[in-house]
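Practice set, problem 2.
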Amino acid sequence: MPRTAVLYRCGNWEIDLHRRELREKGTSVPIGSRAFKLLAVLVEAQSELVTKDDLMARVWPGAIVEEGTLHTHVSAIRKSLRGARDMLKTVSGRGYRLLGEWTAATSAGSPFDPEARLGTKTSRPRPSQVPRSASELIGRSDTIRRLLALMSAYRIVTLTGPGGIGKTRLALDVTRRLADDFRDGACIVELAPLADPSLLPSAIAAALSLTFHGDEIAAPSIARAIGDQQLLLLLDNCEHLVDAAGQMAETLARTCPNVAIIATSREPLRVEGECIHRVPALALPPDAAAGRTELLQHAAVQLFVARATASGLEFRGEEADLRIAAAICRRLDGIPLAIEFAAARAAALGLRTVQSALEDRFTLLAGARRTVLPRHQTMRATLDWSYNLLSDVEKRMLNRLAVFAGGFTLDGAGAVMGDTGADRTAIAVCVSQLIEKSWISTEGEQHSGRWHLLETIRAYANHKLAAAGETQQTALQHATFFCDLVEGRMSSSVPRVALSDCAREISNVRAALDWAFSDAGDAGIGARLTAAYVPVWLHLVLVPECRDAIERALARGGLRLEARVTMQLNIALGQLLSYLPEPVTRRTQDILEQALAIAEGLDDLRSQVQVLWGIWTLRMKEGDHRAGLTVARRIQDAASRSGNAADSAVGYRAVGTSYHYSGNQRAAHQAFAAVLDLPATVFREDHQAWLLTDLRIQSQAMLARALLLQGLVAEAHQQALASFDAARAADHGMSICFTLRYGLWAVELVLGNLPAAEAAVRTMVETATARNFNLWQRQGRCLAAMIAIRRGDYAAGTVQLRAAIDDSINVNFSLGYSEMLGVLVEGLLGTREYGEALATLRTAIDWSDRTGERWYLAELLRLEGELALKAPDVTKAEADAAFRRAMEVAREQGAFLWELRAACALARLRLSEQRPDQAREILAPVCACPDGRVAWPDLCAARDLLAQLSAPDAGSR
């Protein structure tokens, strides 16, 4: 006697193991085949835990299944259970349990077959109607695996995405792979040729070879005709019949328990039980791809190479050609259809021609294959097909969104639709509709609140915008929006967030400025936007771009600009010109002086601090330290009157640096320490941007220099390391270079740790090269030459240092000029070029006297004494006077390091004159070092010499 199939009931829910149906209140709920098998295992366990391993072994016997696949099917069950989803309980790390009082019953009149209830195939296969692909599907293996998992978890899977993304190819491939799993095969229904939704049932009936005698051909009658057949149905290109296709899919899923549906559409069907898979573009290599191997690892390049080769292009696979191919693929957003068109054109025109012709992409990307549907024979036709399905409001929104060169937010969309009368809710709804219809893509996380148009779609929409005659109005709204946005954000109390937010909009800002400074644009808006965006360019270290933008704003705006905008532009331009490795010109000084006059007229103290910093930077770059100290004190005065702690930090930093180079190390120490004593919260990121520096980090590096000269070597080393670590942690390239050049390198050199000093130079040059900091690359060559001389490689080091000094002077960068000349003198002494050494030394001392750069003067005077002892026709008395003068200058400046070196030189001279007692008197005070925690070479040499002089027989030596 045949058994009957088991049926489980719990409240309104039924699980019918024979019909493989999940029902709520007697109505079938769509659920995938494997998901139902999983549900069957759980319900038979009668609320007991079923481990993940047991589930995978029973539902996928003999197969290796990733845990993520199991999670996909569990999610599908919960989606089908809707409000009762909590019945499926996850036991963390172990497995799952189906809760509820499930009672077993029978399904009347149905033979019980345990294999049939699990969907085992019978021996009546229907021949597959799925055509074989004419070419390999490239770069979609991960997507196919995902779709196969979804098809076993859901009854309706819809592939969405923009035109040309490859929805149909993927659906056909998946259908082909799954066809044999369905007893009654697979059937493809091509909906693109249908213009009337009422014809859709007839098209499905014809594809399935169903005949109707008098019955109306509609979704219910088709569902009855299909009945219990195990059938996979592909509904291809549903977007223009989306409502009718959705109704059909939902009816079939509810009525026919063994039917699964794959749909392709540029928007979801929006039916119960539907799983939406947004087809991604092909993987693109980054701009900085390492080489041939990495380029060929990305699907977009693989597809281009394959199709170009198939079209007759002799693709040699050289890296240069692959980079062009990658650039073309990036311009085409990784859209497979566009890449295939471009590859076909490359075979006829060549790679470089195609790359340069992509500006007119819709003319170029046409006619790849004659056998495809007309709407796929050109990219324009592909997009026209979907565009014509949009409502008038959606078309207008899409057209206007084309003005966004970068992504856009809801506020941005509202701004360019401001003249249409649409409120925020209506705009949000319209954006949502365009997302669903695959015209708009999401940036980053799905709910980031930021979207963009693929470049191909954006180019298409721009054509439509121009055809509608709305380009200028939309561009004005776009530029005005970003002008207001950047001005508002940059005046906020959270500069770090403002800089980050505004940096993300750089493509939009560039587009807005291009329009604003065009003949049809608004130069006033462009000038305001330029002035407001300066800190962002500097934050991104885009100095040349920033300079060019300011120059353009001043040239296009002329006398029509507001005084404040003119001031802001002049401040920024003057500062940039002072930073760039170029000679200082009268124009730069005039620009800054004009800005200062406006700032003083407006009584704008913060702007005065900014412009005075630019003037101070000019003075320091020129090496005019006397004038620099005067300007630094003016900065400090303006900062104190502003009452702003961040401005005070600027003032302390400027006077500290000027004191250091002028030769007042005690005052420099106090000023830098004052910066570090300020709370970290006062250091504003916008200050950091327009100063191109982190005030706190660089003040710490300069403090290390002041401490070093004062003889506090251990503390100097500690501060130098801390400043470098902070710069590296912040990933601030300019500060990394600064801390290595002015902090760590100088300390390691005094410590005699030449390998560490060389490592500092290498890191500085690598950082400068990676970020295109030409000035720091020049400095690196100079420091490397100085290390060579200190190592004793006098000949090579001298040649290198001469060239480096000339290079610096050619761009009018003379900061630290006296030190460079002093080390060059050491090299010349080493090569016994005494005449040139003397001339170089006189140049250095004259420079120090003339400019006020006196911090290295004591060393120059010591070198004068050393030269006097070696050069002919120079007396020891002259050497004696030079050493004593060096000690006096060093003592006056608080520069213990220089005093120690000069004292050792003078003591050696006294010893050579057989006056050891005087030598001891000279050395004893300086050997009592302010900080004896580190045994650095100069101190060790002094103490060794003093020990020799203190020996019992010292007087007889």
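Problem 2, part (b): a different protein.
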Amino acid sequence: MLLLASAPGLNAARDRMPAVVRDKTFVVWASPANLIQRGGSALTLDDGRSHFDGIVFGELSPAKWMPGSDYYARTSREQEAWPAETVTPASAPPNAPSRTVGKARGFEDFVEMAISYRGREVSVYRNGRLYAHYDMASEPQEFGEPATVLFGRRHLDAGDPQGSFEGRIRDARIYDVALSQEQIAALRPDEAGSGPKPWAWWSFGDEGLREKTGRFTEIRLIGDVRIDGGCLVLGGKGASVIETAPGEEGRTAPTPATWSENGPVSEAVVRSARLLREKLLADPYRPGYHFCVPEDIGIPGDPNGAFYHDGVYHLMYLYNRSGSGFSWGHVSSTDLVHWRQHPDAIGPGDGDDGCFSGGGFVDDDGTAYLSYWMLWGARGIGLASSHDPEFDVWTKSKANPVIRSTEFGVTETTGPDGEPLMYGTADPSNIWKKDGRYYMLTGNLPVLNKIGRSPNDPLTTQGDRTYLFESKDLAHWTYQHVFYERKPEWTDRSEDDMCPSFLPLPSKPEGGAPSGKYLLLFISHNRGCQYYVGDYRDDRFNPTSHGRMTWIDNTFFAPEALVDGKGRQIMWAWLTDNPDDGKVEGWSGVYGLPRVLWLGPDGTLKMRPVDELKSLRYGERSWSGASLSGARKLEGVRGDSCELEIDVTPGSAARCGAMVRSSPDGHERTLVYYDAKAEELVFDATKSGGAGRMVVERAPLALAPRETLRLRVFVDKSVVEVFANDRQAISRRVYPVGKDSFGLSLFSEGGATGVYRVSGWSMFPSNPY
């Protein structure tokens, strides 16, 4: 929400104005972008309790202005004799000055519309001439404090995104008296005139969105809204400006009294829920198509418990539920893009003070299981199961903890030969089944912290490792051994292995038959997400290669994966770079796009975003050329919600790639590019905004001679992700400060790129809010 201070000396004028407005006049100078739009408002006054009056265009009759009101309580439906609008936008560019042409009242493509309410008498004027007149069946609606003004939407609860005014507005005002026809005819935009002073006034040509009397000081923008050429420009499709006074009841909500889902829903609860939803929709950093924790504290925000069953993808998310504790939220989807909310799967209670990370598994009979770390203290690993069709009801195992700790995340016991034995009982992996038996891994951070941090500790206790457990019945688990041997040339002694995911790798991005290799995804808390590819036999894992998914810090974190009905392995990860004040915004926690993972012909891990994301594309644009030196702007797609496909031959260029979320002067920008000399994919966030981790991240990427560089770049409010040639990716969050940091460009430095092709799409939001 943008807060604007009142102009000096205006508060006293505001205080002298009446608290309640009954008789009134609305005046607006507007230019519709087209004459076929239906049901938007050029100016509305709303009391926040489902009552409103406004200047509405084309709602009941095409191209006709009318006094809008709640359920047409103060609107005449008999509009046959009312003239249809004929004004169309001028051919001049939007930023050209308006032309004075006599009777057109100073703006060739603008029309002055005014509605005067005097008692039950309603008069509508167009350019100072009577347009319509009728008597209301009811008394006029009273407005005071609270009150809200809208441009675009008809009213606060309007749900149709198409029903918003599309066009330009030069000046808008509300009077607390019914003006006469002569007074209305004498009005001019940007001039107060000699008659009554406006109760509220917006002169967009000289003060932008600031309301001149100081009555309305809080401003919220939704969708395609801007000030251009001295006008408020509304792009339709829900684009709106909503202005309120601080502390007004209509734009605030009372604190709901204690209530439960089994009790009646009070007005306070409804208003509070709606206000939270609207606040989240207006958040400039909340992504539109990356999965977000719906509300509350997604820190830690690990994806957990992913599984696929009967055509549906299920995903759990760890969050700190206010008033309760660490819980697993639950969403499901049939397309990996649009997610349905379920009740929380597990949380505090039934022997737990909270539930930390773990995995998901579906047995042969269709029963789904969640494996999780029981909080707090010396508990261990727990299981929960569900067999109902929607997996809405989960039951924790009576055998919990199925793997018992002797202290937080650690078990000390004796081995078969009586020797001391220590293993981790934290962050269990997904369960898998082989030859009728069940297997599960646990992480080692608590063990590493206990005995592996000193340089003098045995090498067998240092660095990353996982522990293998076996079960015949899912209730009784037996420790087997360390699952793999760490190689110091791949990972160092400071790294742990937590949030493990162990699944077979397909040989194609489309899935199909397994490749014979397995993938162990995991994190070290200090270095983020990484992986081993290797062989699995005799209940041991032999890594044959190692790779990372983050290189400068741990922004890409806590991987979770599943294998779907096509045989695809799909993963998610938490982007840990939340803003410091995320809690006060009502939400935190964002995931990277779902990636499909497979084994390439060269034996290395390949990755790309799932194809389902293409369903969100719209408004395709394309650019091409024989070569590029310097920069070329990419226009026509949404700079804060888009996808770019870039194919270039680096040629002699030292660096080539894309600049996104850039301000017009380039002071604020995010760069994603290929560094030819270093053979690296680079993400430069050093000038990305005013918050977050403003660093340079580099990932190894060696192109073969004459190999085309193929980048896919995704921008989604505060998330930027770049994928390169199906074998490398970097995902980070950025926080631009500038309200105009939406620029997109292709660039080449230190030489020219060869033949290039770029396609771009705006991306339609898939999150409900």
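Answer key, part (b): The helical segments are 10-15, 181-185, 204-207, 267-282, 445-451. The chain has four domains: 2-251, 257-282, 303-609, 617-763.
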